[in-house]
Design brief:
31% of the residues lie in helices and 22% in strands. The chain is α+β, with helices and mostly antiparallel strands. The two termini are 38 Å apart.
Length: 347
């Protein structure tokens, strides 16, 4: 469905010098502005009132991935088919093909949850159309504005200034079930048994931890039991605690390659220019400054958690909760944050 124009990629110029990257970017910013303008132009007055907020509204910094009863923005359910297509154009502008597919699959998992929980009384609403689009300020190729897409197990937040995407966190992706164990093929769009929306995030984490020798594991392991949740969920800024665990400087070359691959999995959810900025920031600060920490089991089916933290970012992954059928540790939360300031805000 989604194809990133080659012209967008051609706008990315990387200049290597003195061991650091300098990035001259336009990339996704103009595309976001154009898509945002078209989306807003398709809305009625009432819809526009729900879909827009001032850029400096404090609600811009309020986010969460739990199934809240109310959210800011205009939900997909309240859009016409042409409006939905334009909303997805905006979503595509901020994401890679990989990230877009993950996002739409996360939405589709709501169909499975709805079926599995249909006898549950008083539970949260499960609806693949219960995802909300909000635009903050006015989409402008040269001005400053922002936008977000949020719902159960999804929170994507962007800030554009001067035609460049200058903020792209927090970015949260979750999956329940993490591995689809059962489904009803009669339900249109249900993901097949065996689907793992966040497979690479989990598998590479296990590979990296299990590649460590006993001395390395002793440093990397925070606790024998994984925490129930990510740190700072719903908070406007990322935790600023000092890094814990094993520094990349203590990894072998093979282990460093695994670490780089894991970081890249998270960066590659985003549009090409955003992903390039994330990876260049890590490179500029130095891979050896990134810490890898683990808690919990070293195999699937038992609660496990990891954290990657460097001078510019923190990634957290946790899989401890059961899915709707009671399968233990089959419910993933994963998150990339900017320790220098989420939402384009510098604390």
């Amino acid at each position: 469905m989604y194809r990133k124009p080659l012209a967008v990629l051609a706008l990315l110029t990387v200049i290597v010098g003195a061991g650091a990257f300098r990035l001259l970017l336009r990339g996704s910013g103009p595309e976001m502005a154009t898509s945002g303008q078209k989306f807003l132009g398709s809305l009625t007055t009432d819809q526009r009132g729900r879909a827009t907020m001032p850029f400096d509204d404090p609600a811009r910094l309020k986010w969460h991935f739990i199934p809240l009863p109310e959210r800011k923005g205009l939900q997909i359910k309240d859009m016409s088919p042409p409006q939905r297509a334009l909303a997805h154009d905006l979503l595509e502008a901020g994401l890679s093909q990989i990230g877009y597919d993950k996002t739409t699959n996360i939405m589709s998992l709501e169909k499975i949850l709805r079926e599995l929980e249909k006898k549950r009384v008083g539970g949260p609403i499960r609806d693949p159309e219960r995802y909300y689009f909000t635009i903050f300020g006015t989409p402008d190729p040269n001005g400053k504005w922002g936008w977000s897409v949020e719902g159960h197990h999804l929170s994507l937040n962007f800030v554009v200034e001067g035609g460049r995407c200058v903020g792209h966190t927090p970015s949260f992706f979750g999956a329940n079930p993490a591995t689809v164990k059962s489904h009803d093929p009669a339900i249109d769009g249900t993901l097949p048994v065996g689907t793992r929306v966040l497979a690479k995030e989990e598998d590479l984490g296990f590979q990296l931890f299990n590649s460590l020798d006993e001395a390395q594991k002793k440093v990397a392991l925070l606790a024998p039991k994984a925490p129930h949740e990510l740190r700072g969920a719903g908070e406007p800024q990322a935790p600023t605690d000092s890094p814990e665990g094993l520094p990349a400087s203590k990894l072998t070359d093979t282990q460093k390659q695994l670490l780089q691959s894991l970081i890249k999995v998270y960066a590659d959810n985003m549009a090409a220019d955003i992903a390039a900025v994330r990876l260049a920031d890590v490179d500029r600060a130095g891979l050896d400054q990134v810490y890898f920490a683990w808690a919990g089991a070293n195999r699937p089916g038992i609660g496990h958690y990891y954290r990657l933290q460097g001078p510019t970012f923190v990634v957290e992954f946790v899989n401890t909760q059961p899915d709707a059928e009671g399968n233990v540790a089959n419910h993933i939360h994963s998150l990339w944050r900017d320790v220098r300031g989420d939402f384009g805000v510098k604390p």
